[in-house]
Known about the structure:
Layout: H1 7-54, E1 56-57, H2 59-72, E2 80-85, E3 90-91, E4 97-111, E5 115-129
Antiparallel strand pairs: 1-3, 2-4, 4-5
Helix pairs in contact: 1-2
Amino acid sequence: MSRQRGFVATELALGIGVLLVPVAMLVLTVPSWSERQATARAIAREAGRTVAVAGWCDLDRARAVSNAMALNLGVEPGDVSVALEDCAPGRLPRGGVVTVSVTIQLPAVAIPGIANVAEWHWTARHTEPVDPYRSFD
């Protein structure tokens, strides 16, 4: 009769390393996805309001708001890109709309304190009406 000592310990270590650790990393990453999506929504909403209130289709103003908000919300400004959709440069028409799309990078897997592994992008859109009774003159 042959004895097989030590196999349970080896299987346990492999099981933890191969199954438990990757699942734990994914579970730790999910909250960062939600946080970054909420950040993108907030940036899109505020950039849309800023451009609509100003009355000008001004991408630079939207980017300035985006960069400031990204820093305040703990996201690198380089991870966020802003675009104004269907907005010709110049004065916005009364009663028109401004649509802002904000694309943010989300880590595929975030290893806390070490690094982010891979990434994917998520886009939030916000449409803000321009006041139909406001005088821009």
